[in-house]
Amino acid sequence: MIRRFLLFIFFIGGLSQMAGAQNVVLKTNLLYWSTLTPNLGLEASIARKHTVQLFYGLNPWEPSGGKSLKHWVLQPEYRYWFCESFNGWFLGAHLMAGEFNVGEVDLPFGLFEDLKTHRYEGWYAGAGITAGYQWPLSKHWNVEASLGIGYDYIRYEKFKCGECGEKLKSAHSNYFGPTKAAISVLYVF
Q1: Which helix (H) or strand (E) holds 2?
Q2: Residue 79 and residue 162 in contact, taking contact as beta carbons nearer than 8 Å
């Protein structure tokens, strides 16, 4: 997982060197940081009202007590801006893929109650649509809020407890619902 993150950082560095000034932003999702997940995105303008983005998040930590929230996600996205790139309302289409090892976690709002007593390990891939708004704060700083909904195909194995336990089943699931929530801080090059 660490190697994937370093490869992503190298890729972002290369893209930012190729892109012109005021056409590239580097961003991080503050909501994702609330799960202690380092994340980074690079978005580049390809026309006055069109951008493409590549986002990566990685949580490699193994907290004590059997809990696990290890995962990585890669999410490319295309965006159409109603005003101009990096300013105002946008609509987008995103793809996503990743792996997870999650268990003994108590999520807010009663989400996925089964995670309190079981561990799930697997991968997922899907697609969705995004809507959002970006506020320019200064020449180099913006703030963005966005939400996405879509579909994920999830392949997983279910285990009895967090660190040990027998495998209860191998299965897949089709998920429809929220696929993205972001409040991001952006640096505009």
Answers
A1: helix 2-18
A2: no
For residues 126, 131, 137, 142, the Cα torsion angle rounded to the nearest 10 degrees is 10
Q: Cβ neighbours of residue 106 under 8 Å, at least 6 residues apart?
A: 115, 116
62 contacts: CB under 8 Å, gap ≥ 6: 68, 70
Strands 88-103 and 50-59, how do they pair? unpaired
Q: Which tens digit of pLDDT belongs to each residue from 127-140?
A: 999 999 999 999 99
Whole-angstrom distance, CA of residue 179 vs CA of residue 36: 18
Q: Counting every residue, how long is the chain? A: 189
Q: Is the model more confident about 162 or about 149?
A: 149
Q: Minimal CA–CA distance to 95: which of 110, 111, 107, 78?
A: 78
Cα 87 to Cα 21, 49, 74: the distances in Å are 16, 9, 24
User: Is the overall model pTM greater than 0.85, yes or no?
Assistant: no
| Rounded Cα gap, residues 90 and 112, in angstroms | 31
Q: Answer whether 73's CB lies under 8 Å from 98's CB.
A: yes
Distance between CA 60 and CA 57 in Å, rounded?
A: 10
